[in-house]
């Protein structure tokens, strides 16, 4: 593994001659489009099957992560990503809406946000039933269930939670060759168990059936299954930054450039030791103990958290949630059920 600067997963196509002006590009990126090399590249290097065959998909299990998905799609809409957009959420939420006069406030908020996703950001909503009955009588829709969406040639899934800064770098991943049905891109620091910050999937009936049949429901654990996804390796370090992780910023020194980090990174996964998640109003003393020490990494870290808080309010109309008293499981480790 590597530090954040070297470990920001990076991919860049070989230089090509600039294509002539494209009406398609003008439609999707505005006129003129050229704020980056990606604009010209994406117009002439479409994903397999075209943009109708690739999708940004978020799988929701908990109400706390609905706004995070909405924030992702708000940026995709604002920056005019050409990929399709979909949210999978528990069908049980619809049953609660249909069968209860007085809804749980969390359900009410989630349903409002899902309606906003469809209306404002052109997101397809798909309620799903659990696919696996696991230990203790729990039922879940595993991440591998996304392989069942075989109407698409490629899917990008972003494990919650995170901040999208530039969608062009993410959209370029739709053109990346894949040798397996699931591929991860990690931005974790050296002292953490490696798990993907971005997951690429190539859905098909065969891959879905093979993957699901190989799962032992009694031993299934979502975090462990994430860690088993093969990771993209041997990435060149001198190219466009795609992903970073806030927990890695504490390894950076005074040579780190916070402004360049914010300008050049496509997606920042927000995950830090002892912090439940960016959705929560973490006690000040805990934040201070987690903040990077060097000035520039500290500035970038604080800006990511502040941008997340502001975007959460702007997009979802939600302030930060109080930290639950039972938040002793570690960061981003609330129960994952559907």
Bin the strand percentage. Answer: 15-25%
Report the total helices.
Answer: 12
The biggest sheet amounts to: 6 strands, mixed
Percent of residues in helices: 25-40%
Structural category: alpha/beta
N to C succession of SSEs: HEHHEHEHHEEEEEHEEHHEHEEHHE
Tertiary shape: globular
Main-sheet strand order equals 4-3-2-7-10-9
The rounded Rg comes to 20 Å
Oligomer: single chain
Question: How many strand elements?
Answer: 14
Average per-residue pLDDT, rounded, comes to: 81
Report low-confidence residues grouped into runs of 5 or more: 1-37, 328-338
Cα distance spanning the termini: 33 Å
Protein topology:
Layout lengths: L3 H4 L1 E2 L12 H7 L7 H8 L9 E6 L6 H13 L5 E7 H9 L5 H17 L2 E5 L3 E2 L5 E2 L13 E4 L4 E3 L2 H6 L9 E4 L12 E4 L3 H9 L8 H6 L13 E5 L12 H7 L2 E3 L10 E2 L2 H7 L4 H22 L4 E2 L16
Parallel strand pairs: 2-3, 2-7, 3-4, 11-12, 13-14
Antiparallel strand pairs: 1-11, 5-6, 7-10, 8-12, 9-10
Helix pairs in contact: 4-6, 4-12, 10-12
Overall description:
The chain is an alpha/beta fold and 338 residues long. The protein is 34% helix and 15% strand. It has twelve helices and 14 strands. The protein has helices at residues 4-7, 23-29, 37-44, 66-78, 91-99, 105-121, 167-172, 205-213, 222-227, 258-264, 284-290, 295-316, and strands at 9-10, 54-59, 84-90, 124-128, 132-133, 139-140, 154-157, 162-164, 182-185, 198-201, 241-245, 267-269, 280-281, 321-322. It has a six-stranded mixed β-sheet with strand order 4-3-2-7-10-9. The chain has a four-stranded mixed β-sheet with strand order 1-11-12-8. Helix 4 links the parallel strand 2 and strand 3. Helix 4 (66-78) packs across helix 12. The chain starts with a helix and ends in a 16-residue tail after the last strand. Mean pLDDT is 81; it is low at 1-37 and 328-338.
């Amino acid at each position: 593994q590597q530090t954040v600067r070297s470990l920001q997963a990076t991919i860049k196509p070989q230089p090509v001659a600039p294509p002539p002006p494209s009406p398609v590009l003008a439609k999707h990126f505005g006129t003129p489009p050229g704020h980056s090399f990606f604009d010209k590249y994406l117009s002439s290097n479409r994903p397999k099957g075209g943009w109708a065959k690739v999708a940004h998909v978020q799988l929701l299990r908990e109400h706390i992560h609905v706004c995070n998905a909405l924030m992702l799609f708000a940026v995709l809409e604002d920056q005019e990503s050409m990929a399709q957009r979909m949210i999978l959420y528990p069908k049980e939420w619809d049953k609660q809406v249909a069968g209860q006069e007085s809804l749980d406030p969390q359900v009410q908020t989630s349903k409002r946000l899902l309606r906003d996703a469809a209306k404002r950001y052109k997101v397809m909503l798909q309620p799903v039933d659990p696919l696996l009955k696991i230990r203790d009588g729990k039922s879940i829709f595993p991440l591998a269930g996304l392989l069942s969406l075989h109407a698409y040639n490629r899917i990008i899934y972003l494990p919650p939670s995170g901040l999208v800064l530039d969608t062009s770098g993410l959209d370029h991943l739709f053109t990346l060759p894949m040798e397996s049905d699931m591929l991860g891109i990690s931005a974790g620091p050296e002292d953490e168990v490696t798990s993907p910050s971005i997951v690429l999937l190539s859905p098909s009936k065969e891959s879905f059936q093979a993957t699901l049949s190989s799962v032992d429901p009694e031993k299934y654990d979502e975090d462990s299954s994430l860690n088993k996804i093969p990771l993209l390796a041997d990435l060149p370090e001198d190219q466009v930054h795609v992903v970073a992780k806030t927990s890695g910023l504490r390894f950076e020194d005074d040579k780190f450039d916070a402004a360049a980090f914010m300008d050049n990174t496509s997606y920042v996964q927000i995950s830090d030791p002892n912090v439940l998640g960016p959705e929560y109003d973490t006690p000040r003393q805990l934040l201070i103990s987690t903040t990077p020490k060097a000035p520039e990494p500290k500035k970038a870290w604080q800006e990511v958290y502040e941008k997340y808080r502001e975007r959460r309010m702007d997009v979802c109309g939600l302030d930060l949630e109080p930290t639950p008293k039972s938040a002793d499981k570690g960061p981003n480790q609330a129960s994952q059920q559907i």
